[in-house]
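Protein 1 of 2
SEQ + STRUCT:
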Amino acid sequence: MKKKRYTEEQIIGAIKQHESGVKVDD
């Protein structure tokens, strides 16, 4: 369960970073 939660948080962080990167790149 702990591992799953950590993965979910990592995914959210990656998505947020990706979106921010795309915005900056744009």
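Protein 2 of 2
SEQ + STRUCT:
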Amino acid sequence: MCRAGLQSHPAHLAARVTLGRALFALGRLEDAEMELSSVLEKAADNFAANCALAEVLQQQGRRPEAATQFRRALDLARFDADLQHEIPRIEAMLVPPPVPALVPAPSPLDRVALNEEDGDALSVLERKLRENSEQAAREQRIIAELEDWLLAIAVDRSQHQGA
């Protein structure tokens, strides 16, 4: 609908802002950015286009550019009595999201059960790693022996079938 109206009235900036917002809502962020940027090339003081472009940039993860755009919108709102109610919303958009608290990863040493004769947890962990490595080597040897045994069975069967 916006595009049809823009064919008849291509310079209608409000329709272009509406189209940009519709593209944003559809997830077509690059198209929305292009449409809103074209409005701002013609009317840099267009509050709606500045806000909408800031939201597009924010959604794209381009926080510094979004913040700049939000500040432009904020400057416009400060001088327009009709837009004063928008100032708290825009200021809230400029606040960076809280950084989640870092939780240290559990240490493998915490999971090692110690006996009195073990000494420290690091020694126990090293011993367990050695044991696991030795166990893995034993398992590999057993697998190789089983594969050899299965191959010998297959060869024996093929010889008996051919005889």
